[in-house]
Amino acid sequence: MTDATNTRRVAVIGAGLAGSEAAWQLARRGAPVTLYEMRPLVPSPAHRTDDFAELVCSNSLRADNLENAVGLLKEEMRRLDSLIIACADACRVPAGGALAVDRQGFARLVTERLLACPLVEVVRREITALPATGVTVLATGPLTSPALTAALADQAGLGAGDTLYFYDAAAPLVTADSLTEAKGFWASRYDKGEADYFNCPMTKEEYDLFYQALTAAPVTPARAFEREKFFEGCMPVEALAARGYKTLLFGPLKPVGLSDPQTGRRPYAVVQLRQDDRARTLLNMVGFQTRLTRPAQNQVFRLIPALAEAEFARYGMVHRNTFLNAPRLLRRDGRLAAWPNVFPAGQMTGVEGYVESAASGLIAGINAYRAWQGRESLIFPPTTALGGLSHYLIAANPASFQPMNINFGLLPALAAPPREKKSKNALLAARALAALADFRAGEPDLRQGSD
């Protein structure tokens, strides 16, 4: 590519969660950015709008408390003026202890803020090769176009085993007014927080019928050139069910912590639906990522009594996710070792999850800015969630590398950890925020934001 990159500007390729965050971090520090997005000229298999940072699976950014690693990661990002977390906070919908958003409002707000930024130029076109010069953030995500994937493999000298993929599956959305509310109830597990989930209880007989239909239902087949490779944290519901009769009962259908007000007892199984938009007109079937064909989804999911008349606003779907073998291909600061002017960001680096993708974009944006200035990259302290996640990407075993969510296991252990998990996590979070504060105090580039 010779014309897509102006060396006086930083190119950000891809306007998903990571690319949007990277563009924001660059522009707020004074670097002019050209943000390339191929939609709507070239559609992707999973996106439905032209907005930036569209959420294609769940509308939840997961837990929002500091005793949870993803809650800590979000707080670190807040303190570094994250665009994605600020927009998520502004578009929050009720979800108990989780940060869930009105997905359309969220993507629209991210788009509006970037379009309003005078240092961000948006170009709608497909990029099919790595830039030869200048600094670039490559954030084309798990749905990187085939042309750019091929160019990445060719230009960066990747072998066949270096570019990997797995499958990610989106759960169906159900319209709220199509629920059979008499067959379900609103509650949160263990009465924690508000009653933000619509619970669809099933008796053993109802679960048996549902399980038999689910395990026998037809699925959308993989294409001939693709090998199925699922990420454990996002398994299709039918793939979980195939592992055994009780697998779902210990997974997304577990009834623990819930009591059916109709019977006063714990149900045999429960399907939970979470609010997906601010108006509460759409509900997401929690844990029901699926490969089932559309007719099968209509038939099987309506065997859940509270969903007998369900209207599906979006069916579940499957799409291919592309990611790099990061420990083999990336430098310690996140650059491509074979193409050091390129900073990959987001799920293509091997992080998994919305927040992790945005966090990767935040770090890539900061270090791309420093590269644009001719300065060395920043390496976040390993005791922070940002640093622990970054360290995993370059320190994992390349022979068995798989996508990773943030978890406290990625942070160095405490010298004398308490036995109680919540107390230990609270201490790890406190140590992380203190380390981030010290790190920011010594780096002028990080002093903007909140404490």
What attributes characterize this protein structure?
single chain, 451 residues, alpha/beta, FAD/NAD(P)-binding domain, Elongation Factor Tu (Ef-tu), domain 3, 2 domains, six-stranded antiparallel sheet, five-stranded parallel sheet, 12 helices, 30% helix, globular, disordered N terminus
List strands and helices in order, with pairings.
Elements: E1 10-13, H1 17-28, E2 33-37, E3 60-63, H2 69-78, H3 83-90, E4 92-93, E5 98-101, H4 103-115, E6 120-124, E7 136-138, H5 146-155, E8 163-170, E9 173-175, E10 185-187, E11 197-202, H6 204-216, H7 237-241, E12 269-275, E13 282-285, H8 294-301, E14 312-314, E15 317-324, H9 326-329, E16 342-344, H10 354-372, H11 385-395, H12 421-441
Parallel strand pairs: 1-2, 1-7, 2-6, 7-16
Antiparallel strand pairs: 3-5, 4-5, 8-15, 9-13, 9-14, 10-11, 11-12, 12-13
Helix pairs in contact: 1-10, 2-10, 2-12, 3-4
3D architecture notes:
With about 450 residues, the chain is of the alpha/beta class. The protein has two domains: about 10-165 and about 320-445, FAD/NAD(P)-binding domain; about 170-315, Elongation Factor Tu (Ef-tu), domain 3 (Beta Barrel), CATH 2.40.30. Helix content is about 30%, strand content about 15%. It has twelve helices and 16 strands. The strands form four sheets. The protein has a six-stranded antiparallel sheet with strand order 10-11-12-13-9-14. A five-stranded parallel sheet has the order 6-2-1-7-16, with helices on one face. The protein has a three-stranded antiparallel sheet with strand order 3-5-4. A hairpin with a 4-residue loop joins strand 4 and strand 5. Helix 1 packs parallel to helix 10 and helix 2 (about 70-80) runs parallel beside helix 10. The protein is globular and about 65 Å long. Mean pLDDT is about 90; it is low at about 1-5.
